[in-house]
Amino acid sequence: MPYRGNYTESRQRYLATYDTAEAAKYDAWITALTKADHDACLNDIQRHFTFSPGMTILDAGAGTGALCLSLVALPGMRITALEPCPPMQERLASKPELSSVTTVEGFCDHPDDHSHFAPATFDVVASRQLSNCLFDPLAAFRNWHYWLRPSGVVIVMDGLFNREDWSGRWKGVVDTLPLSACRTMATLPYMLEQAGFRIDHVGLMDATNALPSTRTKRYMVVATKAMDVEPDHC
User: Residue 196, Cβ neighbours under 10 Å: how many?
Assistant: First the structure.
C-alpha cells in the first residue's frame, strides 16, 4: 500500500467530510463574504491578468461558489463550476446570482478526469483554495493544460497554511496532501512548470490580505499554457 493511500480512499474521505452539515457550515462562511471581499479578489487578479467579454472560465473545485461570486461581476463571462461534492454543488446552484453558471460534478486530480471536458474548452482555469486539497496536483495541472485553449491561462489562489490550520475532520489528511501546508510560494509554480505551463506571476494577494476577513495570507500564481510542451495523460 502506498504511503498516502490511493485516489479512491482520498475521494471517499473528501466526500464523507463534506456532508450536508459540513457543506452548510462552509457555505455560511462563503455567504458572509462582502462586496469588498469579492472586489479585492478581482483587484488582485486583474493586476496580472485582463479578462475579455466572452471568455470561457472554469472554476475548478468551486465549492459553494466563492470564486464564482467574484467572477460573475465581470461582464460577458461564460463560467463553468467543477465540484465533486453534491451538497456543495447544490448550495452553489441555489444562489440566484449564480444562475448563469454551468455546474459539473467531478474531481480534477486523476488522469482519467481529463474526460470531463474536451481539449481546448476554456480560456481560463481558475481555482481558489483548491490546490491544498489535491491528492495529485500534477495530474490536476496536466488536466487543466489539456482543457485550456492555446495560450490559455491558469489562475491559482491559495493560502500559506500551517499544519496547525488543519484541524477537526481535516487533521488526519495534512500529511497525505502534497500542498496542504505549503509555507512557501515556490512549490506550486514549480509543479505548474512540470505540467507544461510558463509562469507569468507569483506573489501575495495584497488587496485580499488587507481585509479583516483574511486570516491566512493568500497568494496567487498566474501561468500560461506553453505550446511547446504537451503533458502525458497516460
Answer: 21
| CA–CA dist 166, 129 (Å, integer) | 13
Look up the CATH number of the domain holding residue 42: 3.40.50.150
Q: Which residue range is the domain that position 71 belongs to?
A: 7-225
Residue 95 maps to a domain: yes
Rounded CA-CA distance 169/174 in Å is: 11
Contact 104, 116 (CB under 8 A): yes
User: What value does the mean pLDDT take over residues 158-164?
Assistant: 93
Q: For position 234, what pLDDT does the model report?
A: 40
Higher pLDDT, 170 or 12: 12
| Residue 33: inside a domain | yes
| 68 compared with 170, residue with greater pLDDT | 68
Q: What is the DSSP string of 59-76?
A: EET-TTTHHHHHHTTSTT
Residue 200, helix vs strand vs coil: strand
Strand blocks (E) in the chain: 56-60, 78-83, 102-105, 122-128, 148-159, 197-204, 218-225
* Number of domain units in the chain: 1
Tell me the C-alpha distance between 176 and 134, whole Å. Answer: 9
Residue-level pLDDT at 229: 58
* Assigned domain for 2 exists: no
Domain assignment present for 1: no
Unique residue bearing C-alpha cell 489562489? 157
